[in-house]
Automatic annotation (TrEMBL), chain A:
This is ABC transporter ATP-binding protein. Belongs to the ABC transporter superfamily. CDD domains: ABC_NikE_OppD_transporters. PANTHER family: DIPEPTIDE TRANSPORT ATP-BINDING PROTEIN DPPD, OLIGOPEPTIDE TRANSPORT ATP-BINDING PROTEIN APPD. PROSITE patterns: ABC_TRANSPORTER_1, ABC_TRANSPORTER_2. One of its GO terms (molecular function) is ATP hydrolysis activity. It holds the Pfam family oligo_HPY. Residues 4-254 form the ABC transporter domain. Keywords: ATP-binding, Cell membrane, Membrane, Nucleotide-binding, Transport. The keyword Ligase does not apply. One of its GO terms (biological process) is peptide transport. The lineage of its organism: Bacteria, Bacillati, Actinomycetota, Actinomycetes, Kitasatosporales.
Automatic annotation (TrEMBL), chain B:
It comes from Streptomyces sulfonofaciens. Keywords: ATP-binding, Nucleotide-binding, Transport. InterPro entries: AAA+_ATPase (IPR003593), ABC_transp_ATP-bind (IPR050319), ABC_transporter-like_ATP-bd (IPR003439), ABC_transporter-like_CS (IPR017871), Oligopep_ABC_C (IPR013563), P-loop_NTPase (IPR027417). It holds the Pfam family ABC_tran. SMART domains: AAA. GO terms for molecular function: ATP binding; ATP hydrolysis activity. Residues 8-253 form the ABC transporter domain. CDD domains: ABC_NikE_OppD_transporters. SUPFAM superfamilies: P-loop containing nucleoside triphosphate hydrolases. This is ABC transporter ATP-binding protein. Belongs to the ABC transporter superfamily. GO terms for biological process: peptide transport; transmembrane transport.
Amino acid sequence: MTLLEVSGLRVTYRTEDGPVLAAKDVSFSLGRGEILALVGESGCGKTATAMAIPRLLDDTRATIGGSVLLDGVELTALSERRMRDVRGKDISVVFQEPMTSLNPAFTVGRQIGEVLRQHTGLTRRQVRERVVELLDLVGVPDARRRAGSYPHELSGGMRQRVMIATAVACDPKVLIADEPTTALDVTIQAGVLDVIRDLREQLGTAVILITHDLGVVAEVADRVVVMYSGRHVEHSPTAAVFDRPQHPYTIGLLDALPARAALRGGRRRLTEIPGLVPSPATDPDACQFAPRCPRATAECTAARPALTGADGGDGHLVACYHPGPRRDA
Amino acid sequence: MTDDTPVLEVEGLVKHYRGRAGTGTVRAVNGVDLSIGRGEILGLVGESGSGKSTIGRCVARLTAPTAGRVRLLGQDISAMSRRELRPLRRDVHVVFQDAYSSLNPRTKIGDIVAGPLRQHREGDVRERRGRAAEMLERVGLPARTATRYPHELSGGQRQRVALARALVMRPRLVVADEPVSALDVSVQASILNLLLDLRSDLGFSCLFITHDLSVVEFVGDRIAVMYLGGIVETATRQELFAHPQHPYTQALLSAAPVPDPREGRAGRRVVLRGDLPSQTSRVPGCAFHTRCPVAVDRCRTDAPVLTGITAPDHLVSCHLVTPEAGGPDITQGGNGLVHHTS
């Protein structure tokens, strides 16, 4: 059942050097309790897309077009005041760097409690109890004592758990996590990914996970949207995108991974994607990957390919005139 | 020096930093032994605060070790003065993670690459320019790059420039500290391929420092795993990834996300409880015992020594590794473990 429906989303930043088209016509839907990954390299528009949903982009610099429906409510049309209620209560966000998102002057318990005081009618005692419950939920050991700690007294992994506890304090329908484990060591990352999975199990929270790490995608996501230069180029259930990648860019991205090279037991050689990403200021009516694509033909530069169903069905979509699995060997 | 003298030999390396008043000494490296053979790439892998970068800095003598020996091509450089070090600087060069902050923004790329030649008074201007141009070509940059400035290049191109500069003197050893960590995967792939190509062509040895297991598995001939200032395990790449013996190595390998949904989710994952102890604390016994799921009493009091237990070239520092059974299986451990089999 669809909870969030994003269609034709466009994000344009005004800069000194002219407009930057960060997201161009991005559409996807998110079901209840689903984990959807937005994946791509730097500058592909994954963060712009996700932050446009709770309208967390600077109004004076960014314009948002298209439609975002949360449970049938059009978020792009809400007043800023109504939107403030939505943020934190219906949609909440976890950022990459927990130290800069936490206020160093207040205990973590007070910061988590602040969200509860904003959005619920709980008494002080109830807030205190709920904070301890939340810290327990995200796996902070000795939660009652830890609620009285200041951010600098916690490790990076514990701070990120506190951020997640803050984000889910009001039991949001959608949690947006922007590279939540990128700043963490792998042994700590594993624990935080478990927390995200557990939240979905226990609270039924739907998650939009923004990441550049295909390993993280494989571990936690149900579905994947692969982005390139502000557009979604492939959209599929997680297993299918790894087993039967259709878009040449997705294939290139997977083959560039040292971990995949190791898994294939092949030669010590990684596949490179030649060339550079196109300028974000342009949006030609053509496939933007064509200049770097081994399969490009005249068709690819004549008109932009639409996102259409790929072979194999099950909601696997690809924007390419020559889709299909690897053609080497 | 004979042919089989290691390019680099480190013995009992210790590096302590004095912290701010009242914060105590930061015990970054606590007695490390390692060696790198000719043309070999040693991957040094560890998490933040394990001391891996400090080892790199001591090896390149960007900082003086507190104790221990660092022998470069058989010569002990650990206590040399700056003047004594100068001729040896030809033989060891460093590549850092962030090429943007390690390249002078006001210097043209050609002059950046020729910099080491100038410092060592090699040839005249014309010759230096020629060697810099040749090096730029070797790292896959067009000749016109020489007249550009760092800000005009992409991250991947800047890292190629850093490699060209590090290799222009044809050093015997390159210390590469997280050279691809700031790059997108498609760019990272081209830099890793380039590094292996250049190693085959030029024959240098490399201390490759990284936190990324998949990168080290791709690039390292041999791998050393660090935890809290010490090496816990060393083996060839194939051996380490196939038969990790130290509980920390096992936990690290199991925690790394695998970009293959069936492999990753089917495998058993071990999540370590707790955090890395502070680098200012002195952990008695094995440094890993506070988080080790299979630790026994002895681990809390006696520090294990890095030795070859099952094979002479597979070194491990753990009391629980035996010649018969190899390493303990930490997935069989008791408390402190979370299993994910779904």
